[in-house]
Amino acid sequence: MAVYTTIDNPELYFQTKLYTGTGTSTAFTLDGDEDMQPDLVWIKRRDSSDDHEIFDAVRGANETLNSNTTNAEATVTGSLTSFNSDGFTLGGDFGNVNGSSNTQVAWCWKESATAGFDIVSYTGNGSVRDLSHSLSAVPEFIIVKNREGTGGWVTYHHKMASDPETDYLMLNNNAAVADYADYWNDTAPTSSVITLGTDSNTPNGSGNDMIMYAFASKQGFSKIGSYIGNGNADGATVWCGFSPAFVLIKSTASGVWRMWDNKRPTAGNPNNKNFQANSNGAEYDDASIYIDFLSNGFKARSTDSSYNGSGTSYVYMAFAEAPFVNSNGVPCNAR
After folding, report:
1. Do residues 138 and 102 share a domain?
2. Number of Cα atoms under 13 Å in the Cβ half of residue 17
């Protein structure tokens, strides 16, 4: 079955950058054929146990959050100092992102309704409310962090339960899906608003500044979905409609958030280099934990319970390297 897309070149909206830290202020240029000014830059040191560092253009340069902690936002002068027309500039004063000779990865997104990504900054009011977004589509994956407080990264995924609006995951830990009405007020998001409940911290603590990242699937570019593991080394094959550039996976039961991309493996498949979004650990290079990136999706290649336990449900978010079929009906090259 032909799958068409309105985004023939995913590099306009998502790119991964590998680089080696310089220890001095340096402008890093993205490697894609297309220029892309990122609005969200998520950086992780590969060769050591440093925190994930997340920057976005809405909060501004030098303002960082850590996906693996509940820490409030920190202003780190000399961290990410600017979002550039085709990359970003890092200062030389923050080893987590630019320490001399450190190996690093940066995942970069451009905010765009076309690409199904919106960044929303707002102040909580402690009362049930409808928060507007700009996706012009129903959000399928939502992450919210209290910038001022030490609450966790409250996360919504439309496939985490049969009634996801009543439930939540936490990006900063490995806990299973849990029920709590005061996050989403037991109300599903719509193509114009996200309903927030009355929790005293995140996502709607009164008087607290919040940041929200909202995503919707876009055919041929991104896919936010779920699958059931089979507990077999010839694992579940997950159709995305594109060859992935990035995949994030979490069990709906207890289990870590695993992150893969298409830049760090040195010889294509199997792709065994991954991180845990909820851990500061260095890059995992483990032959027992790997997936294959296919021309139309990805395939689990081990029995590890964090992404392929028998009968276990998993949620994921993936972004494309190339659509399976472009807008002219031409298939991309198989891996």
Report:
1. no
2. 27
Q: What is the pLDDT of residues 217-246, one digit of tens each?
A: 999 999 999 999 999 999 989 999 999 999
* Residue listed under structure tokens 């992404």: 307
Full residue range of the structural domain in which residue 87 is found: 10-109
C-alpha pair distances (Å), 18 with each of 38, 46, 264, 322: 15, 10, 8, 19
Based on the fold, state whether residues 230 and 182 are members of the same structural domain.
no
Whether 59 and 21 share a structural domain:
yes
Together in a domain, 102 and 121: no
Clarify whether residues 155 and 195 are in a common domain: yes
Q: Are residues 105 and 155 in the same domain?
A: no
Three-state secondary structure call for residue 274: strand
Q: How many domains does the chain have?
A: 3
Largest CA distance in the chain: 52
What distance, in Å, lies between the first and last C-alpha atoms of the chain? Answer: 19
Instruction: Kindly state whether residues 28 and 100 are assigned to the same domain.
Output: yes
96 and 139, same domain (yes or no): no
Nearest in space to 88 (alpha carbons), one of 47, 54, 119: 54
Q: How far apart are CA 154 and CA 142, in angstroms?
A: 8
Sign of the four-CA dihedral 25, 83, 222, 303: positive
- What pTM value is reported for the model? 0.95
Two tokens, residue 314: 């998993």
Polymer length of the chain: 335
- Asked which of 215, 247, 269 is the last residue of a domain, the reply is 215
Q: Is the dihedral of CA 226, 254, 259, 268 positive or negative?
A: negative
Q: What is the number of alpha carbons within 13 Å of residue 247 lying toward its C-beta?
A: 31
Summarised one tens digit per residue, pLDDT across range 240-266 is 999 999 999 999 999 999 999 999 987
- Tell me, yes or no, whether 5 lies in a domain: no
Rounded to 5°, the CA angle 140-145-149 comes to 160
Phi, psi of 63 (to 5 degrees): -105, 115
